[in-house]
Amino acid sequence: MGTGGQQSKGRRWGQHRGRIRVADGALRPFGPRDLTPPFLKRRAILYVDGYNLFHALLNQKRREWLWLDLQALGRGLIDPTERLAGVVWVSAHKPQSRSRMEALFRYEAALRARRVRCLMGHFIVHGEHCRACGNVWSASTEKQSDVNLALAVADDVAANRVDSVYLLTTDGDHAATARYVREAYPEKRIVSVAPPGRVHNRQIAAWTDELVGIGRNLLAQSMLPDRLKTAKGWIERPEAWSARPSLPPPPDPPPTNDAGKTKAGHLRLVVSN
User: Fold this and answer.
1) pTM for this entry
2) Helical residues (DSSP H) of the chain, grouped into ranges
């Protein structure tokens, strides 16, 4: 696809004609591409829509996956001919319960300790009302996250810090970002990454070279340690973000005395007034 907003022949809006694969973390055979020195590989950066990914993981009913190491995930997503040059995570902390807010702050600190570039937006709280019944309630709206992601991509491609742009989102608003990179920098490679359980956005896919899905095995292999050290001290995985262990079996009943013994296979009914 060339510049000037014209699409290449056979490439129409809403269609994807590139490669489609699922990154599942499986071991692959050693090949010639593994002999390429890192400095000769294409530089890949993973751009993560944190809010989109968070809710996709929640929908999978696997809360332990929320404690995700984005650096490890990025290394599992990229092509063998590429090296991971960075990870950008954009999100915002929604006003909610104290425990949930604390968990999200812990995760942000953990990502920063892993050298993930965190660009934070914010939520605004506003009033809503129903004209039919007159009911009034408070609602919150996320701000700046989409803009932060778009500006991060635009800045990196303009400064030639990236060769392959990996967009982890299904939010159609980011189709404009993919289109800008394709038209202004046609030599750059664009990859759409769909969060678990979600399909690729058609408008984003139309401007990409490849569609990549995230396999469950790769997620399981890309967890942060339960306890990791940061510049300000140790951080532990939030309890609510852990796999809930199965309940232990009930203990054996205590032995009874001779007077209270019953024969095997019989029940004793005790009535208390």
Assistant:
1) 0.78
2) 50-59, 70-77, 98-113, 145-158, 175-184, 202-205, 216-221
Looking at the structure of the chain, the number of domains it has is 1
Q: Which domain holds residue 81?
A: 43-242
Token code pair at residue 113: 């300790």
Strands 189-194 and 164-168: parallel
Taking only the tens place, the pLDDT of each residue in 111-151 is 999 999 999 875 555 566 677 776 765 555 665 678 999 99
Are 224 and 87 in contact by the 8 Å Cβ rule? The answer is no
Q: Is residue 149 part of a domain?
A: yes
For residue 38, give both structure tokens: 């890192």
Taking residues 180-201, what's their average pLDDT? 95
182 falls within a domain: yes
Highest mean pLDDT among 8-22, 36-50, 170-184: 170-184
